[in-house]
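Lecture notes, continued. The same structure-token format from the folding unit now serves as the input rather than the output. Read the line below as a description of shape only.
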């Protein structure tokens, strides 16, 4: 983590990965560490750093940070990509909503489950140590406890969004009690458990911390707004929204008002390593390079997603924008999104002989297109060349399997190949750029969403327009790199009704966070996943044959199945999600 001391080698050894035969929740290695033999302030500090490391100890096949598999490919934002359907076929099944076959091995969802509970175990072990240290011996005790509550809540929150039914594990539980802890917790009760941990952090952390990367009160307030927003949409046992809790929505507004921050002046700054930990980054996983380790503490979570058909990058052409996603960036004569008709026609799909696409006369788009999607003929990552290494104008040939997945690339998770943040391990690309969990733009739209649902949509108008105004001012980099200027972004004069405001809010979230991962979770939260995704599939399968048999089943596909190995390990204590 940047500006935080390195984890002690001995502690890293103590927390090495356990085998699949062991209980991932019983995570105190015997004979190595115990709360009794490490209960000193110095050791506690190292344990806290180890807990921070754990929330970013993900990989290509067990994501924890970037949700491109679970939140983007599973939505209408993107396709799996890669070398055909059989290439990492588990993600193909996720994209097809074909989850009735139990996951085999330790790839993707089962590994993500394990990795999050490893992170929870680190937080709990650190808490069990710190709780035993006398206050007078550890000046930072309460603050470090609050950080650990925050980290534990974060991991449980991420798990809940993916699996819904999860066991909530705290440091007070003995191993015997852990073994008897069910995942069948009432939905609102489980949300409150997560909120309580964040509330402890909120009440005990300073507004800001000297060391970049540590949780602070500001991040806790933002996360409480996020949790209460999810919790406000009350679901029944089959995941349908049956009530919207107005008291929770007011809490969203109250906590959002506590958050300090600002939008980056240029949207691009959020996705460039030189601007990380800026005013818009409220909470992020920290990575580093050239830190004394072999390849650095870099992120490989999107290591499969680089453009494939160019020597500038490596492998493997995953995570490609859908035609639906590209169409969403169209604007009308007033620079406003086409809320109801954006997908009536396709744009930027007419490939020329030189591997670029023709731009239709009169087409105008939101500039966030060129920050989100690789489009043939338009500069990639705000560059037209990379020194003597080659051309950076995105080309049809950069797509690995255009006959299956089309040719629209992803841009936000990529960096220029001459970036000092960039490293290759074999064909796979890693970077030291942070992965942001909450941006200030999120907080603005959390508040706007709550206001609209409370019928205070006029108050939401300036918040949404603030996001749109920043978008309008974010076209300089692509144009300077050679993109034709087809940008037109306008502000809303008014919201004539709650229904219109609601559409505008949902559309703005999609444009602002396109292919960053929240889209699927937004649709589930709103209770609109089945309707939206089946309509998307009905149209998209006419363009992409691989989606011919895909269908979203309401009451099942909103969440992943609880990994069968966990149900087996607990002797059937864990309850499976409905429909599996």
């Amino acid at each position: 983590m940047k500006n935080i001391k390195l984890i002690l080698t001995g502690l890293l050894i103590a927390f090495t990965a356990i085998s699949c035969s062991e209980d991932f929740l019983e995570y105190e290695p015997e004979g190595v560490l115990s709360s009794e033999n490490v209960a000193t302030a110095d050791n506690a500090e190292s344990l806290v750093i180890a807990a921070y490391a754990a929330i970013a100890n993900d990989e290509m096949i067990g994501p924890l940070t970037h949700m491109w598999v679970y939140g983007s490919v599973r939505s209408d934002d993107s396709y799996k990509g890669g070398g055909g359907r059989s290439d990492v076929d588990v993600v193909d099944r996720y994209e097809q909503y074909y989850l009735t076959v139990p996951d085999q091995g330790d790839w993707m969802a089962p590994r993500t489950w394990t990795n999050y509970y490893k992170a929870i175990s680190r937080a709990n072990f650190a808490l069990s140590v710190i709780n035993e240290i006398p206050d007078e011996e550890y000046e930072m005790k309460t603050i470090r406890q609050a950080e650990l509550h925050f980290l534990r809540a974060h991991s449980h929150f991420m798990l809940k969004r993916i699996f819904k039914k999860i066991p909530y594990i705290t440091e007070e539980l003995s191993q015997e009690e852990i073994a008897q802890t069910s995942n069948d917790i009432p939905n609102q009760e489980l949300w409150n458990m997560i909120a309580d941990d964040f509330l402890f952090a909120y009440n005990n952390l300073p507004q800001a911390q000297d060391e970049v990367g540590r949780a602070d009160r500001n991040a806790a307030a933002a996360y409480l707004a996020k949790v209460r927003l999810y919790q406000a949409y009350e679901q029944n046992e089959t995941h349908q929204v049956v009530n919207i809790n107005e008291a929770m929505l007011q809490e969203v507004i109250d906590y959002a008002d506590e958050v300090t921050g600002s939008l980056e002046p240029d949207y691009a700054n959020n996705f460039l390593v030189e601007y990380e930990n800026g005013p818009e980054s409220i909470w992020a996983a920290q990575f580093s390079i050239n830190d004394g380790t072999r390849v650095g503490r870099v992120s490989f979570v999107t290591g499969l997603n680089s453009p494939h058909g160019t020597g500038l990058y490596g492998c493997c052409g995953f995570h490609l924008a859908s035609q639906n996603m590209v169409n969403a960036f169209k604007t009308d004569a007033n620079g406003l999104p086409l809320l109801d008709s954006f997908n009536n026609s396709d744009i930027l799909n007419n490939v020329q002989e030189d591997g670029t696409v023709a731009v239709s006369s009169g087409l105008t788009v939101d500039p966030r297109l060129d920050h989100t999607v690789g489009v043939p003929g338009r500069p990639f990552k705000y560059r037209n060349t990379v020194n003597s290494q080659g051309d950076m104008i995105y080309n049809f040939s950069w797509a690995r399997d255009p006959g299956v997945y089309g040719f629209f690339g992803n841009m936000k998770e990529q960096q220029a190949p001459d970036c000092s943040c960039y490293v290759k391990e074999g064909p796979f690309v890693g970077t030291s750029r942070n992965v942001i969990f909450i941006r200030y733009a999120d907080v603005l739209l959390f508040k706007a969403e709550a206001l609209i649902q409370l019928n205070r949509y006029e108050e939401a108008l300036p918040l949404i327009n603030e996001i749109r105004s920043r978008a309008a001012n974010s076209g300089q980099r692509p144009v300077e790199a050679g993109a034709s200027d087809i940008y037109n972004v306008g502000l809303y004069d008014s919201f004539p009704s709650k229904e219109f405001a609601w559409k505008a809010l949902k559309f703005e979230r999609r444009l602002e966070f396109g292919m960053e991962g929240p889209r699927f979770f937004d649709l589930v939260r709103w209770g609109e996943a089945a309707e939206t995704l089946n309509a998307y599939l009905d149209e998209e399968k006419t363009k992409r044959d691989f989606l011919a048999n895909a269908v979203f089943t309401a009451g099942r596909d909103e969440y992943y199945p609880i990994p069968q190995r966990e149900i087996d390990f607990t002797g059937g204590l864990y309850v499976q999600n409905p429909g599996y």
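Point for the exam: The radius of gyration is 23 Å.
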